[in-house]
């Protein structure tokens, strides 16, 4: 039988447990996906994409089932706020609910854009349950090509 | 529809859904499919399986840079297993505002029937 000298460079058994604990904790960190949360979020937070184009920003927000009259967007400076309410459930009243993972109620998202936009030219569209907002960048902030001339 | 199963393949997203039975005895399935238009939708019943596939156009533009990306990308897929009580010849599908509503009729024989109780 081989005998191993205690403390001879080998790990302390409690250290083993600690590293095992760390490893398990790490495992769970990967699974947990962060839910977007804002200070003024309501019943739910719809997912948002912000895409930067050359001269504008495009904001896309998934709001299936939300009526046009129940959604509003406002801009102040470079802070965009999307507010709304999903009223429908798509289900009949007095019915028997088997199951659902849908959410209804009010929602709000507030986003800060990296550059100021032109508030007068912001356009918003609602199609197939996706809200699309196009925000043109302010003219003076658009990168301008400077031609270097030989002298 | 007493039993339902969902199969999620890695490339597909499972849409959020709600299933209920109306007082008229129909089964209503509501699925959230933002970004899916009528052309991208495919509803199929095969071997007692109801399969809903919603394809989305990728809104990727050249030269565009994502600053924030929370929306899940890809197509929606949901499969429900139907039992023999569903009349598969009478399925109604409506797609509106990114919401797909499926109405399934139950076979006459299994519809709930109210029995009048009379005083004897």
Please tell me about this protein's structure.
- The complex is a heterodimer of chains A (151) and B (120).
- Chain A has 151 residues and is mainly β.
- Chain A has a domain at 48-89 and 103-141: Immunoglobulin-like, CATH 2.60.40.790.
- Chain A has one helix at 13-31, and strands spanning 48-52, 56-62, 71-76, 79-86, 96-100, 105-112, 123-127, 130-136.
- In chain A, a hairpin with a 2-residue loop joins strand 3 (71-76) and strand 4.
- The radius of gyration of chain A is 26 Å and the shape is flat.
- The relative contact order of chain B is 0.29.
- Helices cover 0% and strands 52% of the residues of chain B.
- Chain B has a single domain (11-57, 70-109), classed as Sandwich (Immunoglobulin-like).
- Chain B has strands spanning 12-13, 17-21, 27-32, 36-46, 49-56, 65-69, 75-81, 86-96, 99-106.
- With 120 residues, chain B is an all-beta fold.
- Chains A and B meet through strand 1, strand 2 and strand 5 of A and strand 2, strand 3 and strand 6 of B.
What is the CATH C level class of chain B, in words? Answer: Mainly Beta
Domain tally of chain B: 1
What is the terminal separation of chain B in angstroms? 37 Å
Morphology of chain A: flat
Cα gyration radius of chain A (Å) = 26 Å
Q: Which pair has the most extensive contact?
A: A-B, 41 and 33 residues
Low-pLDDT residue intervals, each spanning 5 or more residues of chain A: none
- Find the structural class of chain A using helix and strand composition: mainly beta
- Number-wise, the strands of chain A total 8
Task: Supply the number of helical segments of chain B.
Answer: 0
Order of helices and strands of chain A: HEEEEEEEE
Percent in strands of chain A? 25-35%
Please tell me the overall pLDDT of chain A: 81
Query: How many strands appear in the DSSP assignment of chain B?
Result: 9
- For the biggest β-sheet of chain B, the strand order reads 1-7-5-4
Spatial order of strands in the largest sheet of chain A: 1-2-8-7
The major pleated sheet of chain A works out as: 4 strands, antiparallel
**Residue share in β-strands of chain B:** over 45%
Helix content of chain B: under 10%
Largest sheet of chain B: 4 strands, mixed
Oligomeric form: heterodimer
């Amino acid at each position: 039988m081989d005998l191993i000298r205690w403390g001879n460079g080998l790990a302390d058994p409690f250290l083993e447990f600690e590293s095992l604990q760390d490893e398990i904790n790490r495992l769970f960190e990967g699974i947990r996906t962060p839910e977007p949360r804002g200070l003024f979020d309501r019943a739910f937070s719809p997912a948002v994409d912000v895409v930067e184009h050359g001269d504008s920003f495009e904001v896309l927000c998934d709001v299936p089932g939300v009526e046009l009259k129940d959604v509003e967007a406002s801009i102040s400076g470079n802070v965009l706020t999307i507010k709304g309410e999903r009223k429908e459930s798509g289900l009949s009243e007095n019915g028997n609910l088997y199951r659902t993972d849908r959410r209804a109620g009010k929602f709000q998202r507030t986003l800060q854009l990296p550059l100021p936009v032109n508030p007068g030219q912001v356009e918003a569209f609602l199609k197939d349950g996706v809200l699309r907002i196009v925000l043109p960048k302010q003219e003076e902030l658009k990168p301008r090509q400077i031609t270097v001339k030989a002298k | 529809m007493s039993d339902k199963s969902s199969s999620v393949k890695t490339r597909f997203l499972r849409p959020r859904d709600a299933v209920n039975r109306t007082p008229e005895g129909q089964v209503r399935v509501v699925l959230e499919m933002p970004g899916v238009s009528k052309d991208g939708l495919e509803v199929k019943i095969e071997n007692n399986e109801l399969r809903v596939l919603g394809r989305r156009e990728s809104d990727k533009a050249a030269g565009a840079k994502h600053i924030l990306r929370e929306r899940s990308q890809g197509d929606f897929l949901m499969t429900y297993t139907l039992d023999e009580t569903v009349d598969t010849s009478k399925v109604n599908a409506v797609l509106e505002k990114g919401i797909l509503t499926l109405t399934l009729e139950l076979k006459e024989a299994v519809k709930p029937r109210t029995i009048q109780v009379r005083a004897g």
